[in-house]
Amino acid sequence: MKKVLLVLFLAVLLVADVHSQNSPKKKKRVRGEKKKEPVTPAPTEAASQPEDVFQIMGRDDEADTARAELEARLRVLEQQEAQEMNELDEFTDNYGPDPCADKKCGPGRECNPGEKGRAKCVCMKACPEEEDFRRRVCSNYNETWISDCELYRTRCLCDEGSSECINPMNKHLHIDYYGECREMPQCSEQEMSDFPRRMRDWLFNVMRELADRRELSPHYLQMEREAENSPTEGHRSSVAAVWKWCDLDGHPHDRVVSRHELFPIRAPLMALEHCIAPFLDGCDVDNDHRITLKEWGTCLEIPADELQDKCDDVRNGVENNGNEEGDEEV
Predict the structure, then answer these.
(1) What ranges does the record list as Basic residues composition bias (predicted)?
(2) Which domain holds residue 125?
(3) How remote is the C-alpha of 191 from its chain's centroid?
(4) Are strands 137-139 and 109-112 parallel, antiparallel or unpaired?
(5) Of the residues 157, 178, 199, the one at which a domain ends
(6) Cα end-to-end distance, the chain, whole Å
(7) What is the pLDDT of residues 156-173, one digit of tens each?
(8) What is the pLDDT of residue 88?
């Protein structure tokens, strides 16, 4: 359509130019220039004779010729545009819509259309160049990476067994905290003994803040209200602890929280709360890189009889709500 409008615009200019060439031009007057007396040219024999009908017809023929040429060009452009549309329709019929349009890949990965339109997530070929030092991250091996993309891409390459994997141990690579690696101060015995209480209070305050900002799903909001109206501080803490544990247990929902799944609370807090790392490490009592709900409660000093696994109730409720409304996510 843009091409058609451009051709029509050129047609108007060309026809106007044909007529303007046969029209008398008025000379512009420059400011400050002396006005000259008009000189009356001597009449010539040609000027004194009126134009005959053949001269007038000649000018009309020039305009008709120009118009015909433009119409021919317009038809060619229309044919080219129709051909391009046919090729696009043929491509869509053969390959369908973009298979990566709705495909979501994890960090360090990108979508590859694959053969026959079967999209799959593969390790990124390269990460965007990063010059901002604030984007640097520190890994669990105490190594500074230029960006989180580079760290996740490296982990992906090792996880997939790529020849580009330098160290097989990098398949367990994850972000420890944001910023360059630095020496963290040691937590005192008093700080560690008081940390479970502070952590319980922090979890409840975060849940309440998300509820006030309306960023909790309906069933998580129901848990927040239960905590708000709890008759005892212990019950309030247990509800907040179960909420966060269910929230951290991502895909797959296997009733345990892995070291990778602890990232949302570990990485952002490390720069502000250096005791978070040894605290979370201590939660994994058997050192199997997974934290059960019982271990989570023990770590937060919550009695086992006050912990109720409500993750299935929450997820089923959210899924049912999502089927009805289509706009809720866990």
Answers:
(1) 24-33
(2) 109-178
(3) 40
(4) unpaired
(5) 178
(6) 45
(7) 999 999 999 999 999 989
(8) 57
